[in-house]
Amino acid sequence: MATPSAEPAAAQTHHQFPLPKILEYPASTPPTLITQGAEGRLYRSTYLVPDLPCALKYRPPKPWRHPTLDQRLTKHRILSEARILAKCRRDGVRVPAIYAVDETAGWLMLEWIHGGPIRARINERLGKRTEGIAEDAELKDLMRRMGAAVGKMHQVGVVHGDLTTSNLMLNPSPASADSDSKNFLDGEVVIIDLGLASGSTSEEDRAVDLYVLERAFGSTHPRAECVFSELLDAYRGMFKQAPGVLKKLEDVRMRGRKRSMLG
Amino acid sequence: MSLETITLDHLPSSHEVHAVLFRDVKNAPFLHQQLLARNSDFEYGLVDASVVVSRLQLLSAVFKATLTAVNGALKTPNVHSEIVIALNSSSNIADSYRRFGISPSTKDLIAVKVTFPAEDGTEPLTSEQIWEHLKANVEGEALAITDDNISAATDLAKVRKYYKLNGLKWLDDIKDEKLKLKEVETLVIGGMALRGV
Ligand SMILES: Nc1ncnc2c1ncn2[C@@H]1O[C@H](COP(=O)(O)OP(=O)(O)OP(=O)(O)O)[C@@H](O)[C@H]1O
Ligand SMILES: [Mg+2]
């Protein structure tokens, strides 16, 4: 018989923010707050049993919004993210699995992705280096896997809406966790945070997705801009409409430049 | 005793889950009849094991049903009927009972009981009491609800039909059967979580 931990879990650890009710019940691992964003919070905990870590994405009530409207918006956003995740997963796009949803309470319980955001992995990789980045084969290979992941998502008819290297995770494969693996950037690219995603197959929407990623990449990893073309190159090979999207990307860039010139 | 008592994360610790698998059940029509007659001695979640792929799927349904009960949002008479409908990936209640609940032709059966202190202060049944009752009333071979025992009873074709998992090429292409089953489990749990919404 499993022994329940003391109740409530909240009493064991000090929490800066009030916990969602679901996390006040005992769990084998007390919940830890991972990030606190503008819209929501992300906790790490366990799902059902001690050996299954999970991510709980919680959108707390916004006291400045009308309660009824707030409930409706939260519900809508939770369900929309859950539906998109389910669609991606069914269509073979690597996103976190969904364990449980309570849209009324404002949370989503997801598979925990190990390994951390790609942003951190690339930064670690670059270190203080300024030379040899364009020749970094492992980094270029990671860029290609990122391009393949985004291409796959676009292929099944989903655009992300907020592609950054923080919303792409690098999940080490069980094999690469072995000591004999030398490649630091090994692993599976997992797309997360589909809170702003939607179903679309339009060339324009896909190109904007890539543009957002390109801009985010350039400002987060300016020294690695030289390898971004690897990502686009891998994307090109993923589905029939990809070359058209890349053509469109040139227009989107042009518009972006004009807009920034106008200030 | 093959009946296992489990406490699940993120549920009040006063709620305990008792579960056991019965293979080659001989008296499914009798058990089914007890549910139809609303015999309160037979308040169990009685699940047809052929539509269950793993322990995690079963526990997911129990978790969802118990949380719904704790939140006072049951859509069916009690937490035990709620376990059966929690297995469905769509929201039709009659369909849920038909597909996931016991029927007169059920061969392998999972019995689940969720216990908690009653509002009037009555003590919940102990696992020994539950086990005595099940042993006396279910004619079948009792086994622990491990993944291996569950797998032996799973009808994968039925699972893939009920959870609309046919025609997924990437899934069919997975050669490693264990890995494929893991992916099926993930899709099933995701489908249950969304229940058609
Ligand atoms: N399934 C997961 N497994 C592990 N870590 C995760 C998971 N989901 C999210 N995270 C971590 O939590 C962070 C925030 O998650 P996410 O981006 O989904 O939430 P968010 O509220 O939209 O945040 P923001 O909009 O501020 O980026 C991620 O950058 C990542 O580090
Ligand atoms: Mg994010």
TrEMBL record, chain A:
Subunit structure: Component of the EKC/KEOPS complex composed of at least BUD32, CGI121, GON7, KAE1 and PCC1; the whole complex dimerizes.
Keyword Kinase: yes
Subcellular localization(s) per the UniProt record: Chromosome, Telomere; Cytoplasm; Nucleus
Record GO terms (molecular function): ATP binding; hydrolase activity; protein serine/threonine kinase activity
Main location: nucleus
Enzyme Commission (EC) number: 2.7.11.1
Entry's Gene Ontology cellular component terms: chromosome, telomeric region; cytosol; EKC/KEOPS complex; nucleus
Keyword entries, A-Z: Activator, ATP-binding, Chromosome, Cytoplasm, Hydrolase, Kinase, Nucleotide-binding, Nucleus, Phosphoprotein, Serine/threonine-protein kinase, Telomere, Transcription, Transcription regulation, Transferase, tRNA processing
Pfam name, any one: Pkinase
Keyword Hydrolase on entry: yes
Function: Component of the EKC/KEOPS complex that is required for the formation of a threonylcarbamoyl group on adenosine at position 37 (t(6)A37) in tRNAs that read codons beginning with adenine. The complex is probably involved in the transfer of the threonylcarbamoyl moiety of threonylcarbamoyl-AMP (TC-AMP) to the N6 group of A37. BUD32 has ATPase activity in the context of the EKC/KEOPS complex and likely plays a supporting role to the catalytic subunit KAE1. The EKC/KEOPS complex also promotes both telomere uncapping and telomere elongation.
GO biological process assignments: tRNA processing; tRNA threonylcarbamoyladenosine metabolic process
Protein name as catalogued: EKC/KEOPS complex subunit BUD32
Highest taxon in the source lineage: Eukaryota
Family: Belongs to the protein kinase superfamily. BUD32 family.
Catalytic activity: L-threonyl-[protein] + ATP = O-phospho-L-threonyl-[protein] + ADP + H(+); L-seryl-[protein] + ATP = O-phospho-L-seryl-[protein] + ADP + H(+)
Organism, scientific name: Cylindrodendrum hubeiense
Ranges where the Protein kinase domain occurs: 28-263
TrEMBL record, chain B:
Organism domain of life: Eukaryota
Compartment(s) of residence: Nucleus
Name of the protein in its database record: EKC/KEOPS complex subunit CGI121
Lineage summary: Eukaryota, Fungi, Dikarya, Ascomycota, Pezizomycotina
Entries under Gene3D superfamilies matching the protein: CGI121/TPRKB (3.30.2380.10)
GO biological process: tRNA threonylcarbamoyladenosine modification
Keywords, alphabetical: Nucleus, tRNA processing
Residues forming coiled coils: none
Family (UniProt): Belongs to the CGI121/TPRKB family.
GO cellular component, one term: EKC/KEOPS complex
Annotated function: Component of the EKC/KEOPS complex that is required for the formation of a threonylcarbamoyl group on adenosine at position 37 (t(6)A37) in tRNAs that read codons beginning with adenine. The complex is probably involved in the transfer of the threonylcarbamoyl moiety of threonylcarbamoyl-AMP (TC-AMP) to the N6 group of A37. CGI121 acts as an allosteric effector that regulates the t(6)A activity of the complex. The EKC/KEOPS complex also promotes both telomere uncapping and telomere elongation. The complex is required for efficient recruitment of transcriptional coactivators.
